[in-house]
Amino acid sequence: MPTKQKEGGNRCVLTLPLLTEPWQEHIIEKRFKIIEHLKNQLISIELRKLKNLQRTKAYKNLIKQIESVPKSERTALYKERNKMLKDAGFSQYTFMDDMAGKKSLMQKHFESHINVQIAHKAAIDVWSSFEKFLFGTGQIVHYQKRGTLSSVASKSPKTGMFYYPDENIFKWSGGGTKPKGGIILCLRVASVKTNYEKEMVANNEIKYYRVVRKWMKTKYKYYLQITFAGKPADKHREISTGRVGIDIGTQTIAIASDKSVKLLELADKVNKNHIKKCELQRKLDRSRRYTNPDNFNPDGTVKRGTKGHKLKWNKSKHYIEIAGKIRELERKNADIRKYQHTCLANDILAMGNQIYIEPMNYKGLQKRAKETQVDEKGRYKKKKRFGKSLANKAPAMFVTILKTKAEQHGGEVYEVDIMSYRASQCDHTTGEYAKHGLNDRWRILGNGDKVQRDLYSAFLIKNSNKTHDEIDLDKCSKTYDNFKKLHDKEIENIRNEVILRKRRNISSYGIA
Predict the structure, then answer these.
(1) Are 423 and 471 in contact (CB under 8 A)?
(2) What is the tens place of the pLDDT at every residue in 340-371?
(3) What DSSP designation does 296 have?
């Protein structure tokens, strides 16, 4: 049976820079490598254990039974399978014992650097991936690639990691008996300056610490993340009451409230860096082809390696330099994207605290089309969908930030029933529903008004009924005149900004 951590309650995180010296960074890097190694060792042990279970007759027969029975009748069989997995050692506590138990030598071999509690936290991370694979939607358990581990955490604030705010010192100790609990690393922490940081450190209960590393230009920089129990300190932001409707696309967001109507591009500041990244990626490909000509077929495709004879790739100094620049641009874009999403969420909460959105399956939009289709001219249609836009704009990440901020400030995010709501098809003036093509960016309503499709959808989403499964036509009629004035004003602003080149004219706006 999958086990869940009974932590409960709200959590908030404060991040402080670590002021490290080169010799300290060497020790930190060594500890990151040890955790990567321990995780991969544990994954190997558990996969071997799983393979041995899958070879048994009892497990094979049970899987055959599950596959032959309809989904509605599988509950008892799933319980039997879960019990079989638990008896075979697939639980969180068994993973912790395999990593750092009395009979395990995995953590003990590195105890001067890694204590039991930190090893246990690494084992819990491995269990989470197995839990998704065995009981959820996970397809495969991946090994930790060398150099990809981004953080190391403790299980509690009383073992292994300690923070002393009065002295601005963070201690990261090992777990061995020599010398005095292993190698103790004393790191200087940037002093707490703002009132927000002071209030967070003074008033909240610490749950655990995490050391995070981020690649900056040519080296790693290190940060201390302190996870507190409860909600974060109040920043005294302006929060309004009222309804806000949001229609989120792959690149744009339409917002409708009683105060304002907005049609915006999500994370528009990442566009310049994305263009630079594409140019560098083309340089990287040319360099790779020039230094590895034997790894490509005559048609330019990569040769397939055979078992025991993998392709060897030579990387020139120029290649490594370009790859470093791409990595830096990706980091910048991630920070810019998160910052802009946070600012936008604050702006929406200033419009109203009852936020209505239409849920979207972003994972489905990322997948390539399965069927091969041909257009009218006999050319094959692209199978690509919205993967690049979703990667650049991260609308799902924005929704997560919005929900978190709304909860912190006493607001709420409601999701309308997408199957029965059909905001893109409804005309509130007639009460009728009609399908429209994706290229139809403007709607002609029954009263003759012309409205932008996304903004009108946001307006309809705002006017949801109590059960959030239908549009309240009476609310629409009462608030439509105000919406139309704000709508026309926003469209005029967009046109002016496009002419002055202050805004990019996206095709989904539908503005010529």
Answers:
(1) yes
(2) 999 999 999 999 999 999 988 887 777 777 78
(3) B
